[in-house]
Amino acid sequence: METDSYKTLASPSEEVLYKEKNSKFFGYAFPVSTEEDVKAIIDDLKKQHFSARHWCYAYQLGTTKIQYRANDDGEPNNSAGMPIYGQIQSFEVTNVLVVVVRYFGGVKLGVGGLISAYKTAAQMALEISDIVEKTIDIHYLIRFDYKNMNKVMRVIKEKNLDIVSQKMEMSCEIEIATRKKNAEMVFDIFSNLFEVVILEKE
């Protein structure tokens, strides 16, 4: 059974702090939808914590096609980014960025200590986050002449479809969104309407 919903964050988390042998690990979780979002947030955190030693992070984007990255930012390989990413997976969230900023406290933690600290800070940030479930939506463009407006609007209303945008002129175009499991049915209804064209939006 293919699911048509996913979990993500409603808003950025509060800052959390985990301390280990004088090192401080500040954890943050953010909802993101693009790599540009990720970059902007990391840049902000680097300004905010300009005297920190490491800004390690992991993110996951996408619902059907998953894209992820884990970055150790100068910590030993796989001691930071992957433990953070592991928490994103264990909370089963996507479109999420988790960043852990480390201030070095003068005592080396060793790889095991680092893994545990980055994992814990990431976990703490996700635990206090507001995790919400959203539907995976398919977007369609519906094209029709103005004279067919009523029949198109009737279906949109009956099927409770979200209108994303609309252009109403002599020839009209409406972008609608429907959750994935209803998409085929919605597509069929519109494609059976006389003089109405429906296309899936890339």
TrEMBL record:
Q: Which residues form the Impact N-terminal domain?
A: 21-126
Known Pfam families for this protein? Impact_N
Leader peptide range in chain numbering: none
Source species, domain of life: Bacteria
Q: What's this protein's family per the entry?
A: Belongs to the IMPACT family.
What is the name of the protein in this document?
Impact N-terminal domain-containing protein
Q: Which organism is it from?
A: Flavobacterium saliperosum S13
